[in-house]
Design goal:
It is built from three helices and five strands, in the order E-E-E-E-H-E-H-H. By secondary structure, it is of the alpha+beta class. It has a single domain, classed as Double Stranded RNA Binding Domain (2-Layer Sandwich), CATH 3.30.160. A three-stranded antiparallel beta sheet has the order 3-4-5, covered by helices on one side. It has a two-stranded antiparallel ribbon with strand order 1-2. Helix 1 crosses helix 2. It is an enzyme of class 3 (hydrolase). One of its GO terms (molecular function) is peptidyl-tRNA hydrolase activity.
Length: 141
């Protein structure tokens, strides 16, 4: 079977992706009632040997409502009027999702302590504000 390149290091086998065709929803005239142009693409991410573990976990998390409890990612494409263009659209959307999951997550923020100078600046500002507010108050008896 042929392999579909996703990134430089990741490619998935064509046999891991299955397609079924359904009728598109919405308005479309006479043709919509008899032609199955919408594509339902299924990719079993949970059991895919092509995906590293980290990518698999991020993919299922990023897929959200498009992922089933069994770990399948389902993409429905019905933007276009032809079956061929919907197939291409569904596959491209799946590959984009896998590419986004393959990107390493950004490093987490390291907690740092404020410097001594920043603490002093903060306290000076508070003291200045306090003096300003005290000067605004009326005369005391």
């Amino acid at each position: 079977m042929a392999r579909i390149p996703v990134t430089r290091r990741i490619s998935i086998d064509e046999s891991e992706v299955s397609e079924s065709f359904v009728r598109s929803s919405g308005a479309g005239g006479q043709n919509i009632q008899k032609v199955e142009t919408a594509v339902q693409l299924r990719f079993d991410a949970a059991n895919s040997p092509s995906l590293p573990d980290g990518v698999r976990e991020r993919l299922l998390r990023m897929a959200g409502h498009r992922a089933t409890l069994a770990g399948e990612v389902i993409i429905i494409a019905q933007r276009h009027r032809t079956q061929l263009r919907n197939r291409e659209d569904a596959l491209e959307r799946l590959l984009d999702l896998i590419r986004a999951a393959a990107a390493p997550p950004p490093p987490e923020r390291r907690p740092t302590k404020p410097t001594r100078a920043s603490k002093e600046r903060r306290l000076d500002g508070k003291a200045r504000r306090s003096r300003t507010k005290n000067l605004r108050s009326g005369p005391t008896d």
